Amino acid sequence: MGIDAAAVHALRSETLDWRFKAIPGDAAGATVAEFLAGAPTLDRLGTPLLTLDAAALTHNIDLMARWTEDAGLTLAPHGKTTMAPALWQRQLDAGAYGISLANLPQLRVARAFGVQRLMLAGSLLDPAGLAWVGAELDADPRFSFLSWVDSAASVRLMDAALRAAGTVRPVEVCVELGAPGGRTGARDLREALEVGAAVRAAPTLRLAGTAGYEGALAHDASPESLDTVDAYLARLADLHDRLDHETTDPVLTAGGSAYFDRVAAVLGHLPTRVVLRSGAYVVHDDGFYRAISPFSRGVGKEPLRSAMYGFARVISRPEPGLALLDAGKRDLPFDEGLPEPHSVCGRGAGPVRGAAVTAVNDQHAFLSLAPGSDLAHGDVVRLGLSHPCTALDKWSLIPVVDGERVVDLVRTFFS
Questions:
Q1: What is the C-alpha separation between 149 and 161, in angstroms, rounded?
Q2: Taking a C-beta distance cutoff of 8 angstroms, is the pair 239, 209 a contact?
Q3: How confident is the model at residue 318 (pLDDT cuts 50, 70, 90)?
Q4: Taking Cα atoms as reference points, which of 207, 182, 179 lies closest to residue 195?
Q5: N or C: which end of the chain has fewer CB within 10 A?
Q6: How far apart are CA 407 and CA 6, in angstroms?
Q7: What phi and psi values does residue 371 have, to the nearest 5 degrees?
């Protein structure tokens, strides 16, 4: 399955205590398994709170696995979204090729849990980090690692660091193509081909593919944005065809969670392994991805479902039409849209009509209310959230719920 199942299972033996803000104080001293054996319910947990929905997680993992298989693509989901080995295991069990990550600390988490195939979606230039990667490769012949590089200068730095470390196995790399105004990546074909030549000349590296990220070039699904994405992917395909790869199974990788349908359309027919790195799909949301996901734009037969919700309690009604909730920037995401109120818990789960979160501070949310609202001190509001990548990082242990029952606790490792 590509991950150490025993290491993941051992997380159920972790002792609960004050480190985990989602856990009630009376659970201190119990292990995760012991707490779950007591069949806890949602109302036992305090606020602020972030939860994951069990059914939605299963639906999203299965839906993406089926779609990528039908599209003839390979999926190496971006693990930075959740940094949760238990969720990585479920994705790998569903057929994922490997796990993508963004930086060295994330790679170390993955190796601690025995992930056997990793892609670093970026350049690793830290000499100590390269020495560590080289040692991991030399110590474990089953370990497969793929990094990116976007300049000849980066190639020289990587080669020098790996030579100094005395590594034996070469590090496999993809040439990364960017675009003007985008993020990292060589800015044109000529520069990218020069990078490829530099890789082939470096004995510590092996040219194993071509990489890019189209999501930095657009932020909506307008025809203009989709044309921009398609044009970039066509350039990426051209580069891949021109590079003289040094492996028999070169990788062509692109695709976040917003435009993976375009990756399938533009790159899916090519005679090479096309690897998607979509990561946010596993949690999805009630904001940015709800609007832009291909499954929300008519691709496939059904949409993804938001698997994350926030819960916050009314702690103040200082003015007519205003309530203050006990969750803010330290608890819930806000960079891709503010939380949206869904319902008041314990009151028939009815919607909070005419209400909107208008601002968030570090630990508070400002909830504007319709005239005559009966929202009272102590009421708990369920919130829809936007952007899972900046939601789960705020919680080291996240309850998974099935209706009102807490059925699991997902451990994350962001720091």
A1: 14
A2: no
A3: very high
A4: 207
A5: C
A6: 20
A7: -55, 135
**CATH code for the domain defined by 55-282:** 3.20.20.10
CB 289, CB 258: distance < 8 Å? yes
Let me know: does 149 contact 124? Beta carbons within 8 Å: no
Domain locations in the chain? 5-53+305-411, 55-282
Burial pattern 74-98, b for ≥16 Cβ within 10 A else e, equals bbbbbbbbbbbbbbbbbbbebebbb
User: What ranges in 43-122 are assigned the alpha helix state H?
Assistant: 54-71, 85-93, 104-112
Q: What would be the CATH architecture of the domain defined by 5-53+305-411?
A: Beta Barrel (2.40)
Strands 405-411 and 397-402 come out as: antiparallel
92-141 per-position pLDDT tens digit: 999 999 999 999 999 999 999 999 999 999 999 999 999 999 999 999 99
- Answer whether 0.90 is exceeded by the pTM: yes
At 203-240, the pLDDT tens digits run: 999 999 999 999 999 999 999 999 999 999 999 999 99
pLDDT value of position 353? 84
Distance separating alpha carbons of residues 172 and 37, to the nearest angstrom: 45
**Radius of gyration for the alpha carbons in the chain, expressed in angstroms and rounded:** 23
Q: Would you state the structure tokens that stand for residue 337, as one six-digit string?
A: 């849209």
What percent of the chain lies above the pLDDT cut of 90? Answer: 97
310, 49 Cβ separation under 8 angstroms? yes
Please, are residues 255 and 278 in contact by the beta-carbon 8 Å criterion?
yes
Residue 13 tokens read as: 């033996």
**Which letter does DSSP use for residue 246 in this model?**
S
